[in-house]
Amino acid sequence: MKERKIATSGDWRLVTRRKRFPDNWRTPVDEKLDKVRPYAPYKQTYAQVVAKPRPRPSPQGSSTQSHLHYHPSPPSNQPSRSSTPPTPPGTRYYTSPHSPTSLRFPPMATYPEWRGRCFRCLRLGHTAAQCCNPFKCAKCWSDGHIASKCLNTQSNSSTRLSPSVTPSPQQFEPSFDELLQGDTPPPTPILPDGRPEKVMCFIERDEEVYREIQNLNRAVVIHGERQGLLLEAHQIVQMAVETKLVREEEIRVAQLARERHLIHLPRSLSIHTFVKALPRWLWDQGFDIQQWSPLDAATVLMPRFKVLLDLEDFPIYLWKETQLIKAVSQFGIYLGSVQPEHALDFTAWRVSVATDDLRRIPMMIAIVVGGIEHQSRVKPIVWSKGPIYSASDFPELPSRLTPPPPSPTQLDNDMI
């Protein structure tokens, strides 16, 4: 996509598909409104980042937390450097009204939550040497004494907290282990009538999609669905090795639906050369061998409408571009969004989508999060008609591969 740029290293990604609010749509300036500090969803303070617990693997080994990357600690015989020093024995935690994280006492300059914080009054922005404020007690939050000399036992018990101030859920979504019980997969369950025949899901093309298509351009597919023919994966590997063009460790095989197998070839081997070296009996028995293409068993659905919408009452705790893309994927391809006129305006999220039929755009979107349903009203703003893709945006259909000519021995056998 021309409107998206990728950083040269790491996982950082710069998304530039959120447009500024058009100047010609702006209302007269309200100085009082501009002075209000807006809330920024998913924006963390430095202290919140420091206090974020380290992700740990699920004790049940559930796949629902597979997106959390857990890095185990290095072996004890290898030197390791921690981002924060270990907490000395006897350290206690108390909550500060000036910080969203817990403060460790006694304070140490090496603790992230104490960087830039005064050890005397516990406020940010200056050091104890520059402080003119009275001492602040970390236990009862009274002035004039420090926590180690605090005699207020009632406040001491009420202000003491455990290190984990905000509990984290064990699983983001429930497990489905009960569906995997038994020795063999159960028979197809009977579902109620009235199920939709087809559900649309528009998925945007990103750099990873193009990269995977480029990688699969070195693959061939053996089709056996026409005659209901079956081949085992180990037979395909053996046939590939018998061509003497590739070693067993150089190819990868995938079993696809509809009696098809994919063979991924090394870069040094031409697809045409490999297919010509395969045994002729594959074609004679009804198999068809062709280069892989994303157009295989697919149809072209050309979105011809660009629509600008307002999603009113979109849940503020889901105000994130990835969540917005999921919400509109049922009826259109996400093209981008528009910043609100004022940063504190979260009444509606203005989004642009592309779709093939304006009748796909619903009146309402039901957003279900953990069993909680939110209803967001869809309000069209403006739309335009015209294809959003050109011929160059579609992959070229590869030329069809033909079976190799029969060998002289085979011709003699056919004549006999």
From TrEMBL:
Residues 78-97 have a biased composition (Low complexity). Gene3D superfamilies: Zinc finger, CCHC-type. Keywords: Metal-binding, Zinc, Zinc-finger. Residues 19-38, 44-105, 394-416 are annotated as: Disordered. PROSITE patterns: ZF_CCHC. GO terms for molecular function: nucleic acid binding; zinc ion binding. SUPFAM superfamilies: Retrovirus zinc finger-like domains. Residues 117-131 form the CCHC-type domain. InterPro entries: Znf_CCHC (IPR001878), Znf_CCHC_sf (IPR036875). Residues 28-37 have a biased composition (Basic and acidic residues). Transmembrane segments: none annotated. This is CCHC-type domain-containing protein. It comes from Carex littledalei.
